[in-house]
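ok trying this again, last paste got cut off
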Amino acid sequence: MSGLGINNLESIKLPIQTYTDTNGEEHEIDLKVRSSDTTEYTFENRSNTIQTFFKSNLCGYSPVKVETGDAFFEWTPLGAGFQDELGNEQWLGRVENCEAQVVKENTVLYQNMIADIDEEFQVLGGKLKHNTVLNSLPVYNQSLPGSDIEFVVEGKIDFSEDVIMYVQEVRQENEFTTHEAIVFKDAKGLEIFTLPAPITYEINGAEQIVCTYSISKQEENFISLKIRLPYSWLSEPSRQYPVAIDPTLTVVNNPAGVPSRVYSVKFSDSGKYLAVTAITGYRPFVYEIDRSNNTLKELPTPNGGYLGRGEYTSLFSPDDNLFIYSGYDNFRFYKYDSLKGGYTTELIQPAISRIVENTRDLAFSNSKNLFVIATYFSLRIYKYDSNTGLLSNEFIKTLPNKPLKVEFNKNDNLLYTVLEDGSFKIFKIEPSGTIGSEITVPALPGKVTDFNLSEDMKFITLATENSPGWCVFRNDPLSGIIGQPIYPAVPADSATKKIRFSKRMKYIVIAQYLSASLGPALIFYRFNSLTGEIGEKIKVTNNVGLPVTNENALPKGLEFSKDGMYLGYAQDGSATGSLFLFKFFFEPYDNIYFKDEATYDYYCDNNGNIKMLLDFGQIIAGQTTLSKKVLIENANEFSVNQLQVDIVNNSSDFTVEMSKSDNPFIPETNLLYSGTMSKMQTVPIYFRVVTKEKAASGGMFEVRAKCNKI
């Protein structure tokens, strides 16, 4: 890896020869990062004197966690930018969506968190080494008034308990700067963690420079951390880096040779790979997704190609080590070969008895220890060993018709399926891992063509042949579908063939079977995951290459990537009209957001990057503008209180005022909402601008909000 590394986070050094597990037994240290068996984290290492955990996306709250004994800390990167000697700041941006990748046995990489900057974590004996890697020179536009410019990386650390900070055994106040290592101690004076002295160094060179920590302790167990280094040192070599423009919904460029008549589209859990199966060639195609420029690259295939037919469906194992596909009278597993860079080594599965005719769907359980095949007039379920990739304990459940799709519920105690005749069934999963008795479902509105469980498993949406084309039911973890169907106010245009919830359950996407005279094949609806209410149909206004309608192509595949960033759609059409891959709409999460009431648009994204401005237009000097209403929405999974809103305005020509009500408008420069905000709840704020009579110009101002977790 080229570039510069900022070494800025490390746990306290502990004995590295052996570690003691939860049963008190000693083992040799193994630094390998593995798939996590927890729901919150994607990767982990527990075979060390510390335990480290990594979330799938760097944008989530506290994506990296380190545990040692009863103590832990959580690291959240916030962004990077520039600062002058006067304290003025200019930010490159806040952390962008980027997926965790295991690039070496002991190394997790979050690539392109901001403008060609990576976050790298190496699990070492007794410590976690953290590098912020600058792959090219961050571009500074000379806009700050000062002359002494520093590059700044900002993050925050949440500790499990109150910490006291020491530098060279001297206790520090809540705010300080230092070039030295920082030791964090608990109330008893015991060392918990340490931050080593900050340096920046050339990864492939010999030069390095000492940096500066700026620490601000916000609460007893929460600190804000900035690492500063001279931009003059960074800018000595001359480098270039690309600039990417990312609209709301962006087409991902298809590679040359994309097949026609695609029958399925599947993402790997890591979001790194995409698989499609197609009638053309009767084989699967596996691609790597380059998220930096939104392109696909096909992976190498085995010598002689994938064996047998593979036109119907495919799946990746939860850890990306296996690729599975099926076609007529064929079913295959292939292992990933890191040397060849593709799924090229076949893994024989002795436990699978012969697969006849068509397999239409595959699924792993949420606990990753069960695997189910929806095949010819039956469901087959197996125990899955993630270490060997082998299946065992085959159990076959005979069905009255061919199953088309399967999903496990959250607790893996229910299995949902739709059959070719339009019937919908739910079966119990026994503790032994076999398929048990069928659960009675309420009367459904016609034949079912597809279904999908929401991310929180509290809802299920069904695509049906009868008008209005689809509906939503509540879902119970023990009994499955319950209650009455919830219908959209605006029905689908025609028969709905595929349907999916978005990751954050803000939207429902349907794919219709169209005639040439109708609109786009993909339709988007808003959804309220608290009430189950189906909102308006959304019109996609930007030119994103939605599926062409003049082919009358039948929808075959509709899938979101696990992080919800990408939406894949496949239809039985020509090569130019068969496979579509989109970056999906912005969905807020893990924070509070300013929101426009009329359009549902958000003023910033998850990282604080501006999406739109609160514009008062042209204002006459001495004028007080009309008020503008803005909503603050709680997009966390928990309730919050003590919401505080402040205005940052550096202009002397105008004042920005806020009020909790419009009539009367009670002007304030900061607001406090002491009550509780539940998940998805909003509160209104009214803004207006008061200009002075001798005001010479307008300007920009910032509105900042913070709250407490309940």
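PB: full thing came through this time. The longest strand covers residues 71-83.
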